[in-house]
Amino acid sequence: MSVSVEKLEGSKIKMTIEVAAEEFDKAIKAAYNKQKGSISIPGFRKGKAPQNVIEKMYGKEVFYNEALDELIPDEYEKAYDEVEEDIMSSPSFEVVQAEAGKPVIFTATVAVRPEVELGDYKGIEIAAVDTVVTDEDVEKKIQSELDKDARFEKVERPVADGDRIKLDFEGFVDGAAFEGGKGENYTLTIGSGQFIPGFEEQLVGAKIGEDVEVNVSFPEDYHEDSLAGKASVFKCKVNEIEEKKVPALDDDYASDKGFGSVQDYKDSVKSDLEVDKLNDARGKKQDEAIAKVIEGAKMDIPEEIFETEQKMIIRDYQQRLQMQGLSWDQYVKYTGLTLDKMMEQVRPQAEDRIKSRLVLQAVAEKEGIEVTDEDRQKEYESMAEAYQLEVDKVREMLEAKGLKELNNDILIKKAMEFVTDNAKEV
Fold it and tell me: What is the mean pLDDT of each run of 10 residues along the chain (426 residues)?
């Protein structure tokens, strides 16, 4: 494979990539093996027709598209690591030459890191952040832990605030049931705010087996347009009531947590909160400092860079949904969001990410910040701990993909630390 780079206007480059003829021939062979089972040729059993016979009947280009779809992304990834430019967008491909027995030539047009004119980035003034942990903070944290450790017991009395119930319900608007408004034996904690405002409060006092009508109005900004602002009636029946039993804060509870006494437990909670507050304060300082550096900088960013970042944010969100057992189609149906709406929603986040990255890279260049072997080793160890893998395994996986992205990530972190450390609290 060979790569040549042509610089274009607007912080873009065109990469011309040439791939050896034998690689294209291998890709064509792989495409044939993948598709032959679905091709019928008179005189041959399905899936048994030779490649040359199929090409003679349907044309020698019959497997080209499949072959190119596999070949081009792989070869582009190799070329990506060879070019010096910092590529920041997805590629736009164009095939220049594709013929069996000849090299494949294609171009990949991408947006690259634009020039950044920095303003002030050293001595940035930022607001001081309170890091003092109060007794009230400790009490709130302990109460939160007690609530997490609470258990629920079935009771026969009417529903009270904080109870967990099993509920049948069906919603009606203008006397007609609506889609998604029905549930059976639904688990609901009263006071959680899980349902429409006003819904849960009207169940307080309800008895098991009793029919209850709940009258509420959907919010004006409700995601389902046909229901937004509409008055509705929910016919409900409580099937089961469980009362929340919060454990007492005593030495037995502290012992279960691994401490000798309640005071030892409180001291540990306070220590943890102090660490959390220091970390939160550091994060706030970073955010404010970088925002001010961005405000003072000048840069002309190609639209393709923002669009690529927006798609990455959405793709990450889709993966998190899948891990929670929710498909993208289900999410779209439930929220009423389209891909275009999602792109619009994540635009501010994408802009913040891109601008932060650009100014920090510019700071790193201006200050001569570099990535060392020690920096990479620390990153390997950090990732190994986070993902519970061996350090050598993490190093092997990252180095197999190339160090370009890893080095960029480390460089940005170091530049962020530099800007924050040089900021002044006022």
Answer: 94 97 94 89 86 89 93 93 91 95 96 96 93 96 94 95 95 91 93 90 96 93 85 96 95 95 97 96 95 96 96 92 83 80 94 97 96 93 91 87 84 96 93
Q: Does 301 fall in a domain? A: yes
Residue ranges making up the domain that contains 29 = 2-112
131 belongs to a structural domain? no
**Distance from C-alpha of 294 to C-alpha of 320, rounded to nearest angstrom:** 30
Residues 338 and 332: beta-carbon distance below 8 Å: yes
- Among 313, 279, 293, which Cα is nearest to 366's? 293
Q: Kindly state whether residue 16 falls inside one of the protein's structural domains.
A: yes
160 burial level (CB within 10 Å; 0-12, 13-18, 19+): middle
3-class DSSP state of 193: coil
The answer to whether the pTM exceeds 0.85 is no
302 and 414 share one domain: yes
Pair of tokens at residue 262? 């309640």
Sign of CA dihedral 343, 344, 348, 354: positive
Residue 124 belongs to some domain of the structure: no
Residues in contact with 343: Cβ distance below 8 Å, sequence separation at least 6, in sequence order = 307, 310, 311, 314
